Amino acid sequence: MIASFKNAPRKGLMLAALMVAGLVAGCEAPPQKTSQNGYRGTGMVQITNAAKLEAKLDANKLPEVQPPADATGDKASKAYQNVKVLGHLSEGQFLRVMTAITEWVAPEQGCGYCHNLENLADDSMYTKVVARRMLQMTQHINEDWKTHVASTGVTCYTCHRGNPVPQNIWFADPGHVARGSAADPQGQNEPADLIARSSLPRDPFSIYLLGAQDIRVASTTTLSETVGRPIQAAEKTYALMTHMSEGLGVNCTFCHNSRSFGNWEESTPQRVTAWHGIRMARDLNKDYLDPLKATYPANRLGPEGDAPKANCATCHQGLNKPLNGAAMLKDYAAELARPK
Fold first, then answer.
1. Against a cut of 0.90, is the pTM above it?
2. Domains plus CATH for the chain?
């Protein structure tokens, strides 16, 4: 009895040690990979969770390429009725890209997702009207936004990944306009997935990726000249930057030197690419996506009645280069090129 009592503290300490060891093991960080992304000695290092990266790579695999098609023969505009965007293609090229688009966008629904199967020329289905405009948008990106997509380009699959509606889209989201007697027009302190569940303003997209408001944090002038750059502007900017970091799966130092975030001379080349990407998103949302709100049925619109739009995650989906940089367009360059 006395011996058991004397051993009790020792057993208690051993049990406590085992519990602490288990707790530490459970909280231990997973294997990390690091890569220097900026100037030596600045700490501009990208930290990657290997397990998460592997999962992202699995989700970014390419579909099989459709067999090549003969570019000669009758044009699609002659072989079929009401072909308004791809009529310059040969009949074989047209059928090839239509088959690919079905796989990229609606593999389960098939051709009937966009077409009246009893009359393929019929334009009564809104999905066909939207798809036609999306083809024009794809041509526009590949021809006019090489400053962002370079020669890699995009296809329908870049955003859709086998889904009729891309998984990463956004709508205007003011949050709760009022909470009690205090107005809250920014929708702040209402965590949202699009801003990494932070308490920052939940909709930085309407002003930065549809509107063209300057993205600013700190003023470079005297306090008397800081009109338009209050702390709210900084919060909205950080909300957008948080989204970009999550959407591309990178740290802030992928583009910025944290010693001086605003200094372009100390930033990486990726910041220039991102600058063009923001302007590309504005262009697409303003001229292609938002104007489609009159085409969509009510159930496809957002709470504020706006059309679905694109942000950084729409294409990137967790990787700093969509599809991990795979040049998918090269296999469909002829079919998705703007007619000469």
1. no
2. 51-165+323-340 (1.10.468.10), 168-316 (1.10.468.10)
